[in-house]
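ok posting inputs for the NAP job
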Amino acid sequence: MTAIEGSVVLVTGGGRGIGKALVEGLFERGAKKVYATARDPRTVKDTRAVPLALEVTDPASVAAAAEQAGDVTILINNAGVSMQTSFLDSPVDDVRKDFETNFYGPLLTARAFVPVIERNGGGHILNVHSVLSWIGLAGSYSASKAALWSQTNSLRLDLAPRGISVTGLHVGYVDTDMTAAIDAPKSSPVDVAAQALAGIESGAFEVLADDLTRQVKSGLSADISVLYPQLVA
Ligand SMILES: NC(=O)c1ccc[n+]([C@@H]2O[C@H](COP(=O)([O-])OP(=O)(O)OC[C@H]3O[C@@H](n4cnc5c(N)ncnc54)[C@H](OP(=O)(O)O)[C@@H]3O)[C@@H](O)[C@H]2O)c1
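and the output
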């Protein structure tokens, strides 16, 4: 169990969307200090947060953030991108960008911050996955989030004996810039953030933040046609 009260948290992509809601929720729960990262730290508007420059795909930027935020006890890997790729038609560079940001970004930050969190007596990592980790409907975004889910599961095993708990957050559409062009029911970032932070405090391995996500997860052990009915239509 990791208490948020009194903790020092770093939220990647903490200036907008789900990250901004996470920063607000952390202060509501009594976090002592919250680093909110953005590629341009001037875009972080919450005056309670410590703005920090971070490009998660750049090892030097990650190392600099870990140097500056040496008091972190909780790392939240929220930053992500959705390149809307088609595996057959999109530039391979777009496929790589989904993986660089959504898989290698959290990997670089985990490697940089695990020693920091350990030095500070242990703590927690929350990785923001997606319902699309479990259903391949969004090209390389789905694939990168499936890979991140697997990374999270491995890290959880590695880090448990080192005093660091790991939670994965899965959710469907959330009302942020990422889904601005999508006309569908969306969860509120504040509600998703509240569930994620409750998951950190309860030591949940996974947080499934909406009905669609719970439904998709429950279909994973069924025949493939249950999750992909279009194959048998
Ligand atoms: N919205 C949804 O429906 C939904 C559903 C499931 C999961 N998610 C996941 O939730 C997380 C947050 O997404 P969101 O919906 O809040 O999206 P968003 O509003 O588009 O925000 C994306 C965030 O990621 C940061 N970011 C992107 N690329 C980065 C990079 N290379 N280096 C550092 N920061 C980078 C952005 O920082 P800047 O401010 O510097 O651009 C921004 O803060 C993502 O991991 C996303 O995949 C979203």
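notes: The pocket of NAP is lined by residues 12-13, 15-19, 38-39, 43, 54-57, 78-81, 101, 128, 130, 171, 173-174, 176-179 (CB under 6 Å). Residues 72 and 169 are 20 Å apart (CA to CA).
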